[in-house]
Design goal:
heterodimer; A: alpha/beta; Rossmann fold; 12 helices; 10 strands; B: mainly alpha; MetI-like fold
Chain lengths: ~280, ~270
């Protein structure tokens, strides 16, 4: 698999450029982590690859096929080759685990097969095998919204794998999970990436997890790549360049707790400020 | 441990909905003035109210006891009304689903959305009695006019609420189905319908309930069903028979109310 992104730009409406002339080349398997503060363009970058977001300009090729101009059936054909995992899982809550998993085959089956849930036997076999692989074989007919966060994300991973993808996009897959479950999901992704020789583009906030699980780290800031290297290359200086003074971190990250003594003297502080 | 000393106590009140006090009290004044004007200008004549009381007493006196003896007329009328309501609900809800999709901003192109909204708005703009008068003129007296009327009525209500339900769905699920390579119809089947299905079933039951009531009313202008029987009874001063019809009507509404409540409770 070769994914080649050249001079990719994206602006929403008349706003600022979210991605600016971004170049990225990904070859072979393994996890590539994309880090950067909120608003740096990580989600937009991922969604340009499967065209859930329309790029404004630039070129993206997947195994030599230019995909920015694809339409209709060709576009759906591209999408089924690219699996995606979401921050909020995006499972169909009211459908069963099995229906969610089989929906990964929607790009392959006819509308009649999909609507009547008559999926080919191969798909059903694959679904059972993958559900066993992630330990959810006992949840086949449970409704998706009855599962815990970690279980739901595992269904999300299985749904993406049902597509037999060439490439996996994971958009903050652990941001809605607790730390322990996060590590389980990342372990799973990492195992699957190496088992299937599958490249994974992973958006992630947690830098230490990015270091632990990725073979390559890309740092995004204001829509451009300002760091690209191995986890070992990512030193304090690089982290500062990626995260310092970025717009997206906002006030809440700059907030420092008021010491108890100062809080007790709140009116004095207010007076100081007005003086 | 107290965080702030009593001397530093700050007051807080919820900010008013309209910040500008002139505008706020001006609006209150306008509403009050309108209400006074509306009540005084309607010219309620107490004289006529007083005159009406003995007449009401006579009518109620003659309505008692209710007369259930003309059973076949009663049964035929209600059977026809219920048929009209059920057929109209079935066809109306079916059309409403289609129109609801066409009128949902987030699933169709803007041009289609505008057309869909326009159709629903027209269906909503007339009371069923007015629609019934038009259909009675167009297709003649009888149940066909009633069915067509209630289909329009159902589209106006269910179609609008369906469109709104579809606009409120979680876009993440739509995104996920699109990401698997699903086209428009598969997105509808997997991401949209599962999310609005409980709402859809609830609305259909409510509409059946509503159509049962309305089918009696549109009968008054000649669109078939028990409504016609009721007006005839009034015209011939058969108040006891009219009262019997009203009692059965209440009974049917109560039963349908209880049933629909129970069915809706079973859904989530």
């Amino acid at each position: 698999m070769i994914l080649d992104i050249q001079k990719l730009s994206k602006r929403y409406g008349r706003g600022e450029l979210v991605l600016k002339d971004l170049d990225l080349h990904i070859e072979g398997s393994g996890i590539t982590a994309i880090i950067g503060s909120s608003g740096a363009g990580k989600s937009t970058l991922l969604r340009c690859v499967n065209r859930l977001v329309e790029p404004t300009s630039g070129s993206i090729t997947l195994d030599g096929v230019e995909l920015t101009a694809l339409k209709g059936a060709e576009l759906r054909n591209l999408r089924r080759q690219v699996g995606m995992i979401f921050q909020n899982f995006n499972l169909i809550d009211r459908l069963s685990v099995m229906e969610n998993v089989l929906s990964g085959r929607l790009g392959y089956v006819s509308f009649f097969q999909a609507a009547s849930r008559r999926y080919p036997q191969d798909d059903i076999d694959r679904a059972f095998a993958l559900l066993e692989r992630v330990g959810l074989q006992d949840f086949v007919n449970k409704r998706a919204d009855t599962l815990s966060g970690g279980q739901r994300q595992r269904v999300g991973v299985v749904r993406a794998l049902m597509q037999e993808p060439k490439l996996l996009l994971a958009d903050e897959p652990t941001a809605s999970l607790d730390p322990k479950t996060s590590v389980q999901i990342l372990d799973l992704l990492s195992d699957i990436a190496s088992e299937l020789g599958l490249p994974v583009l992973l958006n992630i906030h947690n830098v230490s997890q990015a270091r632990q699980f990725a073979q390559r780290i890309v740092g995004l800031r204001f829509g451009t790549i300002i760091f690209d290297g191995t986890p070992a290359d990512l030193d304090e200086e690089a982290l500062d360049r990626i995260y310092e003074g970025t717009a997206g971190t906002g006030d809440e990250d700059d907030w420092t707790p008021v010491p108890a003594a100062a809080a007790a003297a709140a009116p004095a502080v207010a007076e100081d400020r007005s003086a | 441990m107290s965080v702030a000393s009593p001397a530093a106590r700050r007051t807080w009140r919820r900010p008013p909905a309209i910040a500008n006090p002139y505008l706020r009290y001006g609006l209150y004044g306008l509403i009050a003035a309108y209400l006074v004007w509306a009540v005084t200008s309607l010219q309620v004549s107490w004289e006529r109210v007083v005159q009406g009381i003995p007449r009401a007493v006579t009518i109620f006196g003659r309505a008692l006891p209710p007369d259930f003896s003309r059973r076949s007329l009663l049964v035929d009328g209600f059977v026809e009304s219920i048929q009209i309501a059920i057929i109209a609900t079935f066809l109306g809800v079916l059309l409403s689903v289609v129109l609801g999709i066409l009128a949902a901003r987030n699933v169709v192109p803007r041009a289609v959305y505008l057309v869909g909204r326009a159709i629903i708005a027209v269906a909503r703009s007339f009371h069923p009695v007015i629609v019934a008068i038009i259909f009675v003129k167009a297709v003649g007296f009888g149940p066909i006019a009633g069915i067509l009327t209630l289909i329009v009525y159902s589209i106006g209500f269910v179609g609008k609420l369906m469109a709104e339900a579809i606009e409120e769905i979680d876009p993440g699920q739509v995104e996920a189905v699109r990401a698997t390579g699903g086209g428009f119809l598969k997105v509808l089947a997997y991401a949209v319908f599962p999310q609005v299905l409980p709402r859809q079933v609830g609305l259909s039951i409510y509409q059946l309930d509503s159509n049962l009531r309305a089918s009696a009313i549109v009968g008054i202008v000649g669109a078939g069903g028990i409504g016609g029987t009721l007006t005839n009874a009034f015209k011939r001063f058969d108040y006891d028979f009219a009262f019997a019809i009203l009692i059965v009507m209440i009974a049917i509404i109560l039963v349908s109310e209880a049933l629909s409540g129970r069915i809706r409770k079973g859904l989530t």
